[in-house]
Amino acid sequence: MKKNSKLMKGVAVAAIAAMSMGMLAGCGGSKDNGSAAQDGKVYKVGVVQLLQHGALDQANQGMIDGLKDNGYEEGKNLQVNQQNAQGDQSNLQGIAQQFLADEVDMILSISTPATQVMATATEDIPIVGTAITSFEQAGLVESDEAPGTNVTGTHDMTPVAEQIDLLLQVVPDAKTIGTIYSSSEKNSQIQVGILREVCAERGLAIEERTVSSVNDIQQAAQSLVDEVDAIWLPTDNTVASAMPQVVGVTDEAGLVTLGGEESQVLAGATLTYGINFYQIGYDAGVMAAKILNGESVPAEMPIQGPSDLKLVINTDAVEIIGVEIPAELMEQAELVTTQTN
Q: Options 3.90.640.10, 3.40.50.720, 2.30.29.30, 3.40.50.2300; which CATH number does 160-275+310-336 get?
């Protein structure tokens, strides 16, 4: 009961914070609309996304909407060059050079690898990033409070401790938690490091499987199912892009799978208490508008955290694996079904 109450309190606080951010963004939008309209300039913005999957797509749209609601709209005073690297590092480098040649006024960068390449390519063009777990540990800023570089934005650090406590409410007898993540993603390494600490505090063992590409996902999942009592997934780009392979294995094994964020649940994971990627993208878009307005510069603009965490449960997944979710959680949650492309 204490865990449920704690989770309910966390959801309520997150909801209040999200409402407050929305009100502030709305007020800022009215002010910024005026200053942007009076400028008369058409701003060139390059948007780079590491690869295509639900979370990054949502963050991308959020950024564009955040700019629009604050006075910068494509076709009016904004020219947007959208680029997707398809997960290829050499593509990222080519995109960076293209943005430099086009003399863009700003770069919007989605994911840690994409932002690292952009930051290496230029120290002058403002870069606003999102879907980055730790700007500091990725070497993008001097500190979250005072970036000190041409990079700022919003991070996507997941509430790992709260997620594990949620998982234990659904699988109370769990002794071993399994996880899959990309060995090359700094984001994932940070989250799994936190997972180890959280599980150690709760007396849980961990089974880890690392992958180098989506081709390794199914085998990694299959190697876990007989060794663990539940699965926890980080906000890993490689894993997120291959969720059907993960849940295809875990559904058959009847294992509860907790996704790092909402789009993983929409893709078939059982549940999450996690980030709304659209919202962190939107918040980054609001920050970008303030930079274009001349209100601030990246070096002096603190990194922002998620303003919207929520409990999401996939009712299709619940039925497939035959797990019983506590009624109190079902009442709190946003209930969704699996979405297929």
A: 3.40.50.2300
